[in-house]
Write a structure and sequence with these properties.
Radius of gyration: 22 Å
CATH topology of the largest domain: Growth Hormone, Chain: A
Number of domains: 2
CATH class of the largest domain: Mainly Alpha
Helix content: over 70%
Shape: globular
Length: 475
């Protein structure tokens, strides 16, 4: 789960920070940033920390289904889809539960040691996952990887510590770029380096033949070690621990109770609640796809699938990531000036929904051509939706007089719930329907994705009809 400088999204205003709504520290407000100056090397370390966290999230996507199938066959497990959903959701659930804890710890002992502990945890549990020989071991190591991946929240807190209000947006944008790049690189590495013994003679007879999905995990761990060395040598502490020694820190329980209470309150706040529901349903539908996409692409051609390998799937997700980066880097500006965020939101949700529904209708003989078109719809739709909702929610909250930090925190918390429930739902629906008869067959989970996107788009009708986020024509 992602936070901004202290548990809030990057779009939280400096005024909100100063009021203590979205405090610079996880739970305590500070009017001024730290006097520590962020060097280019320090910012590079934070970029790498964030990117490696996302690589760790995405690297298993191309081969997870194959790994679960192999382990399930050994253990006589039949609910393969449900186990895929559990493994995906466990990572998000651990991040959701433990990010506030790491934030609180970083307030007490400093950002630098917490970031380094996170990198050590990444190194250990990325590699451990590659050695999975039972489903329970895979689940445990995946959960522990999520436990230690509270680094994104702490990295954003570090940036909040060392940045002036004028620097904040640019430096938070650096974290956003690391997200996109990590999600592109992760699946690509996971696909390209899976089962190396079957592709390169050099790996025959080695541990990588016994554990075919170990190599991409080792590569992720090696990147984590590189970042750890760089952080040890070049990352200074960003907060004055002595000055903060008298400040009362909130416990994990207080943080969680506050988060749940705030989320439930914001779901009853008129137009703001409508947009939060829009975002939550979009995220739910998008993450349902994560659990079932590779079940479909790996399905034999004579059963309606594409017979894709881990490498093929890695390239597909890398394609989605690259198109998403291109959308947010090039397309979002002109599109917002032309349509405004208010109109882009339902358009993006519908575009993504159409792409998700079309996935299982890909024809094997033209698989890559069709998949490129489908991926373009999904990546462009998602790339337009995310910044548009954040921007419009900021404008809406300010216009209606709500505290921006509370609104953004509620959106992110409920989005995290959607990321936990989505893969579980997708895996369960696949188990129930994949061997059935149309329309209740392997198409069903993707139809569910489309239905959730449609509901998300329809809920925008409850939002103000005027576009308060579109620049005036004179501009």
């Amino acid at each position: 789960m992602s936070f901004s400088a202290n548990g809030c999204l990057p779009s939280s205003s400096n005024e909100a920070i100063k009021k203590g709504v979205c405090p610079v520290q996880f739970g305590e407000s500070m009017d001024e940033p730290s006097q520590v100056t962020a060097s280019k090397t320090a910012l590079l370390v934070l970029f790498l920390v964030t990117m490696i966290d996302m690589i760790g999230f995405g690297i298993i996507i191309p081969f997870l289904n194959y790994l679960v199938v192999d382990l399930a066959e050994q253990e006589g497990v039949v609910s393969v889809g449900l186990w895929v959903g559990l493994l995906m959701s466990s990572y998000s659930a651990a991040q959701f539960l433990f990010s506030p804890l790491w934030g609180s710890i970083s307030d007490r002992i400093g950002r630098r040691p917490v970031l380094m502990v996170g990198l050590v945890g990444n190194t250990i549990f990325f590699t451990a996952f590659g050695f999975s020989n039972t489903l329970l071991f895979a689940l445990g190591t995946r959960f522990m990887a999520g436990v230690f991946n509270g680094n994104i929240a702490v990295a954003r807190a570090y940036i909040g510590d060392v940045s002036t209000p004028q620097q904040m947006a640019t430096r938070m944008g650096l974290i956003g770029a690391a997200f996109g790049l990590g999600f592109t690189i992760g699946p690509f590495l996971g696909g390209e380096f899976s089962d190396p013994a079957a592709r390169w003679a050099f790996f025959e007879g080695t541990v990588f033949e016994s554990y075919p999905y170990l190599l991409p995990c080792v590569i992720a761990s090696a990147l984590s070690v590189f970042s750890l060395i760089l952080a040890y040598r070049s990352l200074p502490e960003s907060i004055d621990l002595e000055a903060r020694s008298g400040i009362k820190q909130r416990s994990w329980g207080e943080e969680m109770r506050n988060m749940v209470s705030n989320s439930m309150t914001m779901l009853r706040k008129g137009h703001v609640s409508s947009l939060i529901w829009v975002t939550m349903l979009f995220t739910f539908g998008f993450t349902v796809m994560h659990a079932v996409f590779i079940f479909y692409t790996a399905r034999p051609v004579d059963l309606g699938g594409l017979n894709f390998s881990e490498m093929d799937n890695g390239r597909i997700f890398a394609m989605i990531g690259l198109l998403g980066i291109l959308t947010q880097g090039v397309l979002i500006g002109p599109a917002t000036r032309r349509f405004g965020s208010r109109r882009l939101i339902p358009m993006a949700a519908l575009m993504t929904g159409v792409g998700l529904v079309l996935i299982p209708y890909t024809q094997a003989e033209h698989a890559w051509l069709h998949m490129f078109g489908v991926c373009a719809l999904i990546a462009i739709g998602n790339g337009l939706f995310q910044p548009s909702t954040s921007s419009y929610l900021t404008h809406l909250a300010r216009k209606e007089g709500y505290e921006l930090g509370a609104v953004m925190g509620a959106q992110e918390s409920l989005g995290a719930f959607a990321r936990i429930l989505g893969p579980l739902t997708g895996g369960y629906v696949w188990v129930l329907t994949s061997e059935g008869v149309f329309p209740w067959d392997y198409h069903t989970a993707f139809h569910l994705c489309g239905a959730l996107m449609l509901i998300s788009a329809l809920l925008t009708l409850r939002m103000p009809s005027e576009d308060i986020s579109k620049p005036p024509e004179s501009e």
